[in-house]
Amino acid sequence: MDLFYQTCREHGLKITPQREQIYKEICRSAKHPTADQVYRAVKRRISSITLDTVSRTLHLFVKAGLVISVESYGTARRYDPNVQPHHHLHCTECGGIMDFEYRPFDRITAPAQVAGDFEVSRTRVVVSGICANCKKKQKRKVR
Amino acid sequence: MDLFYQTCREHGLKITPQREQIYKEICRSAKHPTADQVYRAVKRRISSITLDTVSRTLHLFVKAGLVISVESYGTARRYDPNVQPHHHLHCTECGGIMDFEYRPFDRITAPAQVAGDFEVSRTRVVVSGICANCKKKQKRKVR
DNA sequence: TGACAATTCAGAGTAGGTCCTATTTACTGG
DNA sequence: CCAGTAAATAGGACCTACTCTGAATTGTCA
């Protein structure tokens, strides 16, 4: 939580009970929760909170670099409190995203000819496929 | 378009004017369009078409391997007719996704200790940052 | 402590689908 | 090349995940 207070101060963000709970919740969750999932969890502590507050707060957190917005394949944005380099396994069946760490991948950088005028902030390897769980259930073909 | 006819036949998908136009449109667009963008474009040719038809058709195309569903950072799914290995630049400001090709990245594979029971179908490098366009406009700090 | 800008809440509005059902259409065998 | 049938489509209701507006409230600094 120290990181939270420090980052808020650095960016001139006011510290409110709502923001504390939102940040705590996103850190507690092992998955990459959506705004709505965070909202439901925080609502148990602060019953008056709205989804709008949670959504806007998560956007602010992203801008402040406190959490990151990770790629999604479904319909909802997903957030990740792990701002350290790491990589993702993406299941094309259930839409789930799982973290994995593999140091050699952390050193991958796009060559200048590719990056060009692009200001790179993060490079990630995304492995798509079918997770063990979904593979079991999978017997049917296309249609 | 040959690929389209062939893939449809292989998967027992009927060939309809709607599906032809949807596939043509997604190939024409250099970006990675959303279902809604494809819908608006195709509607100019087939005015009776519905967003529902476009959405379902794109799902079918994904299952048949005719197009792929790429990662997004907003709330809309994005589709890509380029099923060959390639990589993405993702602008965190405008949400845009641009393709890039860099052969050495195509050979990246996750080690067994990571993949485990996961059945890998595709591995992609995603470079996040700020594109040249957005960098220009960017003068303001957080908030 | 008091002023005030930042933040929150409530409710309405929007984007991007998804589901249901009746109707239409593309493919198959005769 | 035509009819039967399963697949596909259109239209409309419904849903999820935000996003906006405006008024009320609250944290922060002098």
Gist?
2 copies of one chain form a homodimer. Chain A is an alpha+beta fold and 143 residues long.
What key phrases describe this protein's structure?
2 domains; DNA-binding; Arc Repressor Mutant, subunit A; alpha+beta; homodimer; two-stranded antiparallel sheet; 143 residues; 7 helices; disordered C terminus; three-stranded mixed sheet; Dna Ligase, domain 1
Structural write-up:
- The structure is a homodimer of 143-residue chains.
- The first copy, chain A, is α+β, with helices and mostly antiparallel strands and 143 residues long.
- The first copy, chain A, has two domains: 77 residues, Arc Repressor Mutant, subunit A (Orthogonal Bundle), CATH 1.10.10; 54 residues, Dna Ligase, domain 1 (2-Layer Sandwich), CATH 3.30.1490.
- A three-stranded mixed sheet of chain A has the order 4-3-5. Chain A has a two-stranded antiparallel sheet with strand order 1-2.
- In chain A, a hairpin with a 5-residue loop joins strand 3 and strand 4.
- In chain A, 29% of the residues are buried.
- The C terminus of chain A is likely disordered.
- Chains A and B meet through helix 4, strand 3 and strand 5 of A and helix 4, strand 3 and strand 5 of B.
- The structure holds a DNA duplex (30 and 30 nucleotides).
